[in-house]
Amino acid sequence: MYQNLVRKEVMGILEKEVSSFLEKFLTPIEKIWQPSDMLPDPSSADFKYDLEEIQTFAREMPYDLFVTLIGDCITEEALPSYESWLMGVEGINQEEKVGWANWVRAWTAEENRHGDLLNKYLYLCGRVNMREVEITTQYLINDGFDLGTSMDPYKNFVYTSFQETATNISHRRVGTLAKQSGNGKLAKMCGVIAADEARHAKAYKHFVAKILEIDPSEMIIAFEDMMRKKIVMPAHMMRQSGQKVGELWEHFSDAAQRCMVYTGQDYINILKDLLDEWKIEHVKGLTEKAEKAQEYLMKLPGRLQKITDRISTPDQQFQFSWVKS
Ligand SMILES: [Fe+2]
Ligand SMILES: [Fe+2]
Prior knowledge:
By secondary structure, the chain is mainly alpha-helical. The chain has helices at 7-15, 18-25, 35-38, 47-60, 63-77, 80-86, 99-125, 130-143, 153-180, 184-214, 216-229, 249-258, 264-277, 288-310.
């Protein structure tokens, strides 16, 4: 174990392994799926049948599930703006053509396909007011975000570990619900996106595990800090036309809760998963402050469970301008 390292040095130690991270957790561009692999080809004779199938399923999709899918798409569409954030994180140098900057670019490039695919699919659905969706996306990028991470790589990696797991759950559930209704095309799309998110989650969890070996006290304190603030979703500033910043978020989150695509219970389960994965309970050689953080973290799932068990989601559906009436 090293003593009194600063973040930049720790990121420097890990940076030597970035090319192996790229190999292990990302897929070469020529081999990975592209949105057009999943979408009907407009030049094909079957296009009008495919389109009809997509539109029939879209019409039949329950309202909450449909707006959750749209919100997920918007979240993905705004994701490349997170790249510009990560590039400023301590220990990441945008000018580099190697190391962490390479990781951030390659990860963003994979992520960019998610919003691209979902956007094109939604356009074909015929049930979406695309202009309103585009306005929400533009606002989301325009309004910026505060994820509570500051420019601290440790906090950013906690955030991305959590977030990639959350998006994996959310896309996977939409896919499962789509499959149950017979909508094989959408199920496949959500399935391939969810699989990407699972790889990404593994990567970020691995980075945190590595930092825990090198700088355990500071890593645990950063984890505690993020959990005390509560992990906010990247779309928490979401709004639609005529609304103030963040006004739409709760309605979107309620819809996702009602259709069980992403719930308060998932939040707790992700936390438990991270605590297990990083073996937080068994990390040794901590400073006094870090031991307190460790204790706080280990008790947190139980405390959150009590709160979550008491909360109920409002039944009333909000009318999103994204959906054509
Ligand atoms: Fe994504
Ligand atoms: Fe992701």
